[in-house]
Specification:
Jelly Rolls; 2 domains; six-stranded antiparallel sheet; five-stranded antiparallel sheet
Length: 196
């Protein structure tokens, strides 16, 4: 008797599953995105100080505009309401820069990011630093949750840009499972002798 491989699509499915799992291949559904290219806070509920906070083209991380916050007398906020899927694993990414004044002083200051009223990240009396990307995660509730950012800066300004909320699409577990099952089912089998 001869042994032969039974052709199947298992190999192709396994390769597709591996590609889906590879870094950089995972796409996501964009739930919210704002790079302040409107030139204002129109995508946000605005709790800013009109004298010290705003949107301009002086220090964008990307594009033509970025938000700036320099309220020396209190805390300025921006927030938006996000509709979520229960159990969804959401990622919030944003770029933040802490300017220093002409003498190099960047404090006192504070920054906070919260989801649904729960602080996810905070900075206090941070030194000056250039644009840095931050990523925070949260789990969806199945309802609306508020995404909020709070800024206080006495010496100079916070610069804030490129806010994106995504619901990453996990690698297709169904595809991975199907490929595994097909591979297990198509192991080498004994070929039946040809019929006379």
């Amino acid at each position: 008797m001869r042994i032969k491989n039974i052709p199947s699509i298992a190999g192709a499915l396994a390769a597709a599953a591996l590609l889906a799992c590879s870094p950089g291949a995972q796409a996501g559904v964009v739930v919210f995105s704002d790079g302040f290219e409107s030139g204002d806070f129109s995508a946000w509920t605005d709790g800013t100080n009109a004298v010290w906070d705003g949107v301009d083209g002086l220090a964008p991380q990307a594009g033509n505009f970025a938000a700036f916050f320099g309220n020396p007398g209190g805390t300025s906020t921006i927030s938006t309401s996000l509709s979520t899927v229960a159990g969804g694993k959401y990622l919030v990414s944003f770029w933040l820069q802490n300017e220093a004044d002409v003498t190099g002083n960047a404090a006192p200051n504070s920054f906070g990011a919260s989801v649904g009223g729960t602080t996810q990240m905070s900075l206090s009396n941070a030194p000056g630093f250039g644009y840095t990307e931050y990523v925070i995660g949260f789990e969806g509730t199945g309802g609306n949750v508020d995404l909020s950012f709070a800024f206080s800066q006495t010496a100079a300004f916070w610069d804030f840009d490129s806010v994106t909320v995504t619901l990453p699409e996990p690698a297709s577990l169904a595809l991975v499972g199907l490929a595994g099952a097909l591979m297990a089912g198509t192991r080498r089998r004994k070929a039946q002798p040809p019929s006379p």
